[in-house]
Amino acid sequence: MKTKQRASERKPPWLRTFVPKSSPLVVTVCEGCGLYIIQDRENVWESWDYGLVEGDDLTVAIILGRPVTRVTWLPSVGHPLLRSTFGSRGIMPDGQYLARHMCHLARISVKPFKPPKRERPPVKPWGWPRLSKQEIAEFKRIWDMPYSQLKHEKTPTNHGRPGR
Question: Does pTM surpass 0.70?
Answer without folding.
Answer: no
